[in-house]
Amino acid sequence: MDDGYGRDGRQDFIRGAKDIAKVVKKQAGKKVGRSVDKMADEYTKRSYKRFEEEDDDDDYPVQQSQDGDGYYRNDSRANDDEGGHSDSTEGHDEDDEIYEGEYQGIPRAESGKTVPVDGIAPQAQIRDLAQFEAERRKDQEELAQQYETILQECGHGKFQWTLYFVLGLALMADGVEIFVVGFVLPSAEKDMCLSEESKGMLGLIVYLGMMVGAFLWGGLADRIGRRQTLLISLSINSVFAFFSSFVQGYSSFLLCRLLSGVGIGGSIPIVFSYYSEFLAQEKRGEHLSWLCMFWMIGGIYASAMAWAIIPHYGWSFQMGSAYQFHSWRVFVLVCAFPSVAAISALTTMPESPRFFLENGKHDEAWMILKQVHDTNMRAKGYPERVFSVTTIKTVKQMDELVDMGEGTAWHQRWRMKLSDLFNQVWSNFLAIFSPEYRRTTLMMMAVWFSMSFSYYGLTVWFPDMIKYLQKQEYSSRTKVFIKEKVEHVTFNFTLENQVHRNGEYFNNKFMNLKMKSMVFEDSLFEECYFEDITSSNTFFKNCTFIATLFYNTDLFKYRLINSKLVNSTFLHNKEGCMLSDFSDENSAYMIYFVSFLGTLAVLPGNIVSALLMDKIGRLRMLAGSSVISCVSCFFLSFGNSESAMIALLCLFGGISIASWNALDVLTVELYPSDKRCTAFGFLNALCKLAAVLGISIFTSFVGITKAVPILFASGALAAGSFLAFKLPETRGQVLQ
């Protein structure tokens, strides 16, 4: 028989099949079934035998699986392959010497193709793009139905719970990142001489970094894989969070926190998409809601660590005046631990099989799904149960070959690869605005923006209002002294919250003390001595200093407003930051305690949303929680005390968390697998942009009026709840 290929062609065919088998072995990372070499021999023997039979008949039929549906194995199928041993399967068939549950290298249902005629490959045939897209859409629909059936066979058990805790660490790292800067600012401003503008920028830079990261990593996750992208993003977060605890300058710290935010920005979009692709329909809404609890755990972890570490100023060392490592830097270092733990745990988990199937990698997906099935069955006490799936639908792929000649330089090859990757990510982003998804995307943008604008705006406005109320109460306790005369007295104790007018001070010593919120007006200081003074919010207005010495103080001339200096001297002025205010330990503890309570308050909302998500549906949960949150905003007008504001913060957080959980689940289910992370990343980036706007606008009204923040927040929530009802309900649907 002249097959047109000859002996060399046959050998090339066999070598090619073995090469494919080696690739499968490399991708698997562990032994699956019999040895790959023996599997390759048997596969090529069967494949070439069929190839010769088809050539003899001059007919090229499409290969179909024996059971009719192409998904499950037929136990009566004849098999004359040699026997082998498998470490991961059970049950030996004496008749055909094949282990049940063992991967046989069976061709995919859609892989049967016409044999090339006259050496012309089928890929060379010109296809209409519309026809290709129609075929791809059909493949995706078939895959969605079959994938749901396979997940139900795999069950929900040990594997999903293991992945739950692994991805929970990544989500916990995101929750920690939100709180880090806010907790360290009161201490960091002393070390880095931060102005109010610098503190504001440091607070917002994290959100800007997360905005960039969400968009970047979300797009890459749909192209290079969920697991790989999450590992890269968490690694960037860990590295720059580590560096930020050691850098000394404000600019360096700002850059490190920005890049740390870019890294952690990929956590939320990837984690929810990744986990959803291992969950069957009836478990998806509930378990995605349980996963949200780790964000709360991250906030509790950050609050507890701040409470335990930052006030302990003894946990520090100093190398001259150039390098300082205080307790707040220890806290920043500790806050990187969840991200590092997530990286370590994630290396033990596989890639999403749904991602592999969407990208035509059948064998890798099959092995992972078998791992899920076997892990769950062994944990449930049914090790004898066999994974019955042999063939899984894969989505047709468009060839995207880039011709890079052998003489092409490495940097040119990398540039071409990056350019190709960028084009793929960008086209995928534009696809979520195609006519099919445009309405859904625009509606989701409005809901995400309104939710984020009100939530983040209010959650930052609450602490600022509490600080404002504290300052008001502090000012009400100010002591005023008028026309006092003090001579030959040594002050070596803290002077705080006092106003002295028209006083006269002769031959007095102010030594080793702190001045906090002290104001001297129209006063005379003659032959006085100031030594080792640390001050905050302290000013001398229209005062006269005669023959007075300032030694090792921070009473620089800018604190002397319209004052006269006669024969007075400044020696060895203190280096460091001149702060408008510094917080004591009680104030720091209060910040951590309020954040701890606000974070813990979302626990009831998390539990309720998890239990009801699959019962009442995503839209009812989202819209209902938004309406109740909107109503709760009107109680803010009654928050005239510190305790009342804390209670309202807890109430608002506990109610609104159900909206966030429903929104996360809805976003995962509204978009197909090849666009899921891209869409989620874009919407999450928009969320961070809305957070920046909300924080900037709401905090500008602190101490001015409550009406504007209340109206903004309630209006945004009302609009979000109204638009939520316009979205399609996804409860009970297979994952697209």
Structural overview:
- This protein is α/β, with parallel strands linked by helices and 736 residues long.
- 58% of the residues lie in helices and 10% in strands.
- It has 22 helices and 18 strands.
- It has helices spanning 6-28, 36-57, 129-154, 158-192, 196-224, 226-244, 250-264, 267-276, 281-291, 293-309, 327-334, 337-346, 353-358, 362-379, 410-431, 438-475, 585-600, 602-616, 618-633, 642-670, 676-699, 707-724; strands at 92-93, 98-99, 317-319, 323-325, 479-482, 485-487, 490-491, 495-501, 504-506, 509-521, 524-526, 529-536, 539-541, 544-546, 549-553, 560-561, 564-566, 569-571.
- Strands 5, 7, 8, 10, 12, 13, 15, 16 and 18 form a 9-stranded parallel beta sheet that branches.
- A hairpin with a 3-residue loop joins strand 3 and strand 4 (323-325).
- Helix 3 packs parallel to helix 14 (362-379), helix 6 (226-244) runs antiparallel to helix 12 and helix 19 packs antiparallel against helix 22 (707-724).
- Residues 1-7, 27-37, 46-127 and 579-583 have low confidence and may be disordered.
- Plays a role in the control of regulated secretion in neural and endocrine cells, enhancing selectively low-frequency neurotransmission. Positively regulates vesicle fusion by maintaining the readily releasable pool of secretory vesicles.
- InterPro entries: LD_SV2 (IPR055415), MFS (IPR011701), MFS_dom (IPR020846), MFS_sugar_transport-like (IPR005828), Sugar_transporter_CS (IPR005829), SV2 (IPR022308).
